[in-house]
Amino acid sequence: MSVFGAFSRVQRAARRFRRQRAAYYEYLGDLLTDSAGRVLMIDIFNQDVERYAGKPRGVLSAYWAERYLESGADLVQTWRGTLPEADMMVIGSVVEHGGVGALAQAFKEVARMTRVMDEAGKTFKSIMLVGVLAIALVFVALVAIPAFIWPKLSSTFEFVPPDFYGEKTQAMARFAEAVPGYLIGAGVVVAVGMLAFRWSLPNWRGRLRAWFDQRLIVYRLSRDFRGAMFVSTLAALIRKRTGNSMTLAEGVQAISNEASPWMQWYCAQILDNLQQGHDQVEVLDVGLLDRETLFYLYDIAQARSLDEGLQKAGLRTEGQINGAVRIRARILQITLLAVMLLTMAGIAGWTISTINELVDSTKLVYQQ
Question: Which residues cross the membrane (predicted)?
Fold first, then answer.
């Protein structure tokens, strides 16, 4: 098999394995803990090649076993390119600052964070899907008036002169006549708008975007999700271990190096605050975190320490993703669906009213 073919096979396996990685990390953490470190990573890889032959985990394990030996037992280099960089960042930090002995705990932390992140991703994707569905159905319903509803009504009541049309019938006739001229343009505007919105979530940055993050519910939800994961990841990076731990600046910079342009902008604000000598909690007050989380972090840091404050805040924000943030997401979904249903109900009511008017107009015609 060619190198390109093998690489492609590995990448396909990596994409399929991505949804299973939380359970895999947890398995590794439990195995290293319960075996008291007597089980080596190379042994795990080699055993999984046979145990999961033909499956994504087996394909990846064969690839990892080779990379592990080639990289001199560097686990991050072994997994790089097949597992998310965010995961590698936390694991690499633990190995560098906490030693191999802390690896089991790192696996468990990453497993927990991965599950929360995956759940957040599913929730946000479901919101996007509902939004796209709502826009598409409303667009189709509006297009149905000139494409189907009005032609059908006008042909059925063709014996009714336009002079006998009622107010709603005249409005539908004008709408059906005007829409085709704007149909292509409207479709392009809607499509471009949806693509621009999708692009803006990870890429748009600056003061105006920060204002949107504070006040527009969709952007605020996105900020809440990403802000929660920022705190959780930062807590894992700077946690005090047996070796040297990362500083706050190093942790923020590490996140920024692997982050989207949107997150990089917020990280730059935090690093700038650090350079200006602000209080270690105040440096995080850049709009990335909601006020309640920031106040909670400040109170814990004052009572205990910044490290413990971040650990507690990280767990708390992860819980919020499964609680309050998810509730707000569901409310937004219900709102989008309600707008869609009300729009379609309005079109249905308009159609029924038009039919009633045409029936009345028919009576007037025959009375002439």
Answer: 127-150, 182-201, 331-352
